[in-house]
Amino acid sequence: MWDWYEWDSVEEFNAWHDSLCASLGYPLDSYNQATGEIDLEATKTTAYTSPSFVQDKVIATVEVQYAEVLTLTALRLPTEPQR
To answer: With contact defined as beta carbons under 8 Å apart, do 44 and 27 qualify?
Structure first.
């Protein structure tokens, strides 16, 4: 399950994210969906999650199993008005 977590700065987010990516073996190879084989010509996955900025905080979605030391947040990205 994924949830939203917050950091006080992009530097704090980057330190956590870099450490997690290293522990998970990033960058990850891409796979051909039709064959299930590694696609050596496809771009590798280089980021686990991406930060967003809301109310002077950095927020991102993280799987619960990787969020033990993180701060859960109620902050969310603003949504655009429906047209």
So the answer is: yes
pTM to 2 decimal places:
0.86
Coil, strand or helix: which one is 65? helix
Listed by start position, the domains of the chain span 2-31+38-72
Q: What is the pLDDT of residues 4-36, one digit of tens each?
A: 999 999 999 999 999 999 999 999 999 999 999
Q: How far apart are CA 48 and CA 40, in angstroms?
A: 20
How deeply is 27 buried, as exposed, middle or buried, from its count of CB atoms within 10 A (0-12, 13-18, 19+)?
Answer: exposed
Contact criterion met (CB below 8 Å) for 4 and 73: yes
Closest CA to 57 of 4, 15, 7, 3: 7
